[in-house]
Each structure stands twice: as structure tokens, then as C-alpha cells.
């Protein structure tokens, strides 16, 4: 059997295979500053059957279309060696319109979309209640084999150049 055919068969097997890990979020911190932009922002997280579910809602005082997102994702392996998986500054409106083009970010966006049903596009509407219900990281959206370790994302959301929201997520892969 050719090596290529063999690899193809393995990769098909990998696609449908059960994942042997779960994502656990240990810490979620959300802070916000601009009361003339944010009407209401609430969030909560529950742990159930080795899965972390996040819910929240965001209501803005008025329409906004100038949003810059600064985000980093770092990973620490079992030897505590840190790898920066990404660091990017992005225009959120362009990002939301092109989200499907980046594979890594698409993994997050896809899970988000299941619950927010395509509401996330610019301009973000004032007086609209953006809600997230029991969002979680679905292992099936990730490769079958991931290394053990912990991860952390730090995200700063700047609205009209003002630092408005900060989100920190720290979690780990549970095998
Ligand atoms: C939601 O957040 C607002 C402030 O942004 C606060 O006044 C309100 O009590 C919160 N509601 C809940 C259910 O936590
Ligand atoms: C959670 O994960 C631990 C460790 O992998 C396992 O022993 C336990 O049975 C799991 N609990 C549930 C409810 O899946
Ligand atoms: C956002 O990221 C850019 C590029 O890394 C950086 O120059 C800028 O200072 C960051 N903005 C804030 C408010 O941290
Ligand atoms: C927005 O929706 C959430 C979740 O359903 C709810 O708890 C919250 O009170 C709503 N906020 C407003 C301002 O209607």
C-alpha cells in the first residue's frame, strides 16, 4: 500500500475519532471601563462534567463600528515552556466579516456562532442585547492530538481608540 494512501486512511480515521481531551477553563476575567459605551456587561461560568460553560450578555449604549481587538494566545507545555501561538491587532469589523478565512480563529468563531446566530457584525447595535448561552470549546473542532498543557488568552477591546473591555481566559487540556 502506498504511503500516501496509508496517510489518507489515517487522516480519515483521525477526523471521526473521539477526542481524548477536554478543555477546562480555570479562570475567566472580564473588565470594562467606558460607561458611556457599555450599558450592561455580565458574565458567568459553570463547570459541569469536565466542561466549562460560559454565559454572558453585552448591551451597548449606541451603535459602534470602530473596534480594535488586541489579542494574544500563549501555551505552556508540561515542562512549563511557553509558546506564543498568536498575537494580533485586528479591526474587529473586518475580522467579523472575514472570520471564516483564518483556521485557528475560525475554531473559536464557529463555536460562538452556534449560540449567537450571526448577530455579530458591524456596526454593533446600540440597545441590542448580545447574549452568549452556555458557550464551550468543543474538542471536536480541534485536531485529534493536542499536547498537554495550559493556555491563556488576553484580549483588549478598544472602542474608538479607548480601552473598553479586557478579557482574560486561562485554561488547560484535561486528558
Ligand atoms: C449586569 O451588569 C450590570 C452592569 O453592567 C449590573 O448593573 C447588573 O446588576 C448585572 N446583572 C446581573 C444579573 O448580574
Ligand atoms: C472528569 O475527568 C476526570 C479525569 O480525566 C475523570 O476521572 C472523571 O471521571 C471525569 N468526570 C466526568 C463527569 O466526566
Ligand atoms: C495593541 O497591539 C499593538 C500591536 O501589538 C500595540 O502596538 C498597541 O500598543 C496595543 N494597544 C494597546 C492599547 O495595548
Ligand atoms: C439580556 O439578556 C440576558 C440573558 O437573557 C438577561 O439576563 C439580561 O437581563 C438582558 N439584559 C437586558 C438589558 O435586557
TrEMBL record:
Residues of the signal peptide: 1-16
Cross-referenced Pfam families: DUF1091
Oxidoreductase listed as a keyword: no
Keywords, alphabetical: Signal
Chaperone as UniProt keyword: no
InterPro entries: DUF1091
Protein known as: GH25132
Species: Drosophila grimshawi
